[in-house]
């Protein structure tokens, strides 16, 4: 039995080290977080045509996502209802239906069991084919981004994203939509799934230190941070956290900061030209953030950097391992030359062999594996930076920490994490809708 109260101290901003490796905690996470939250599947741009499919994961469950004949999207657990073999072995493709490789049961794009070899001869009338379709998973999309959920009591995807959409809309909608460039690169890291999520959701503190050598080598405007020689000046950025632990750290006007000189100039021009359009399409307040660098996570395991233009899912593979899926994100209306530049820059920085990705991976693996030692494991993790400085953001209604470097969104992530692990169902979580801000603000 996991004592959740002993794991996360919201008031003091600390977490027990066990959360990075304990098998019982991991089991509870799979049930109460991955079993209840909206989990990223794919984007419209990856499966545009009827029969396009992609295979991914929801927690440890393998899922097949398929574009339907009516233009909609359905998702199914990728197993055969006969003896449980995998139905689709490819990572992605286009098909008219799906045939299990074991005995040849064949399913339609809509998951219905359509044919069984020698059905009449070998089964007679025994088989109830209409009850033996592939098991469907609830899916919804927001601005073309598709997510799946195992829990039918969960709120809609739009409500789950909640006020955090105020920030998502800036890049998902500000200039007419965003898209992903795939297929995703896939890689294995030997770390707990939360180590990259917390890093992406709120850690600007590590940039000048962990990435010192990479920043110097890249030579862009952020190289002034290398070796922790300078702190970003006051007003350089903020931290945001929202109802269900989604968060973002923002560095103003730094969207092109990790790009090469010419690529960066092209991107900077794009952001400058489009800022007035964003103001018109969304609001002046949102346009203020357009062209900033976002480091962000959508609870539980989906992260993105807008500006460095990577979009990632950290799929758990046991408490000590993850499989990372990495796409490039671009704004749909960017000229092709800029999309290509953004993609090159993303691969150089946060691709599987990217310079900054490799820097980060070392930390994540050590945080996971070191904490298993019984003496080291006894302590707590600290995320107290900026504790008590945050307030409610009048523009977006999220909680805002007023500096570029702080741990506000760490604390918001772990507040939500604790809530999911404690609550027995979504009703209990909903009942806390009016109180979560007080919890975080220690009111
Ligand atoms: S397990 Fe799929 S057809 Fe038998
Ligand atoms: Fe990093």
In short:
The chain is built from 14 helices and 22 strands.
Helices and strands in order:
Layout: E1 8-9, E2 14-16, H1 23-32, E3 39-43, E4 52-58, E5 61-67, E6 73-77, E7 92-94, E8 97-99, E9 106-108, E10 113-115, H2 119-123, E11 136-142, E12 145-149, H3 157-161, H4 165-172, E13 178-189, H5 194-202, H6 207-210, H7 212-218, E14 237-241, E15 247-251, H8 261-281, H9 284-287, E16 293-298, E17 302-306, E18 310-316, E19 322-331, H10 336-350, H11 355-370, E20 380-382, E21 391-392, E22 399-401, H12 408-422, H13 426-430, H14 436-441
Antiparallel strand pairs: 1-2, 2-20, 3-12, 4-5, 4-7, 5-6, 6-11, 8-9, 9-10, 11-12, 13-19, 14-15, 14-22, 15-16, 16-17, 17-18, 18-19, 21-22
The site of FE2/S2 (inorganic) cluster has 9 residues, from loops.
Structural features, described:
By secondary structure, the protein is of the alpha+beta class. It has 2 domains: about 5-35 and about 165-440, Naphthalene 1,2-dioxygenase Alpha Subunit, Chain A, domain 1 (Alpha-Beta Complex); about 40-140, Rieske [2Fe-2S] iron-sulphur domain (Rieske Iron-sulfur Protein, 3-layer Sandwich). It has 14 helices and 22 strands. The protein has helices at about 25-30, 120-125, 155-160, 165-170, 195-200, 205-210, 210-220, 260-280, 285, 335-350, 355-370, 410-420, 425-430, 435-440, and strands at about 10, 15, 40-45, 50-60, 60-65, 75, 90-95, 95-100, 105-110, 115, 135-140, 145-150, 180-190, 235-240, 245-250, 295-300, 300-305, 310-315, 320-330, 380, 390, 400. The chain has a 9-stranded antiparallel sheet. Strands 3-12-11-6-5-4-7 form a 7-stranded antiparallel sheet, with no helix packed on it. Strands 1-2-20 form a 3-stranded antiparallel sheet, covered by helices on one side. The longest helix has 21 residues, at about 260-280. The relative contact order is 0.16. The protein binds FE2/S2 (inorganic) cluster and fe (ii) ion.
